[in-house]
Amino acid sequence: MSSSSRCPYASLTSALDDVGSPLRQYLDSTFPNRQPLQTAHRAAAGALLVSGGEAVNPGTAGAAFDFMVRLVMDPSHIPQVATSGAANAAVSSDVFFAVVQTGQEAAAVCRSAAAPEELARAAWALALYTEVYRIGMVVPGSPLSVVVEASSDAVLGVASSAAVRELQELHALATHNLYPALPDPPNRLVAGPTFAASRLCAADADLVIDGMLLETKARLGSKNARTGRRSDSLSLVDLYQLLGYVLFDHEDTYSLDRVAFYSARYGVLTTWPLQEFLELLHGGPVNLAHEREQVWALLGGPAR
Fold first, then answer.
1. Which residues make Cβ contacts (< 8 Å) with residue 123, sequence separation at least 6?
2. What is the structure's pLDDT at 91?
3. 1: containing domain
4. Is the pLDDT of residue 42 over 90?
């Protein structure tokens, strides 16, 4: 039996979602002290600044915004998960790469300016291709079947005007609250990074920028039943996802020294020095190399 076959989970997300998984149980027992980080993030969050349109799928919008950020930071980026999704959908490579190129060209000019419509449309298409990758195929007649088109213009036209406006609003907020806080230019940037343990349990993050692991989310937040107002929060799974990426970097490939979480609809960027992040979660000193070895072994990685 290969080492990777001993991990029954297709992805880090699925392992975190299962409270009975060895990885989730390890994180629950070793890093149980989540409240200080959640409280700090909640204190920094204000009102919801970009609401979601009823006709716009929030999950797709969130994934599309992730791709917008990656492309703005690295206009040469070609998302591998979306590439795999396009292959699963039997999309012509010419069509797929024309969509990617449209996004790249539009992203190159808007780090501090309004997002062109072409960037929003390309990012939406990449989000749909990624959904195909997660599912593994396109079911005929499903909403995802719209990405199986004969031309890039048709694929770029899939995003509704409401979806385009929403993504442009999220980008506008990021030009004030995200991009100015990031190095320009960075010394080392990796968009969509994977990790040594990703070959044991699939995991890809949003960005690593000069040693900072950045994860973005575009959730609407929970609604108060009495006031109807939404509020932001940093969930257990959000924290564990950041933590999981750090621990999956078994070989210290990215020399991580900070972690950051950007809440796109609230315009809130929360950052922590890595060791502080780990020690707050654990409630005391943490030997990162040791904990990475623990996770490696849990996932069935071969002994060094």
1. 64, 65, 67, 68, 71, 103, 167
2. 84
3. 1-52+185-304
4. no
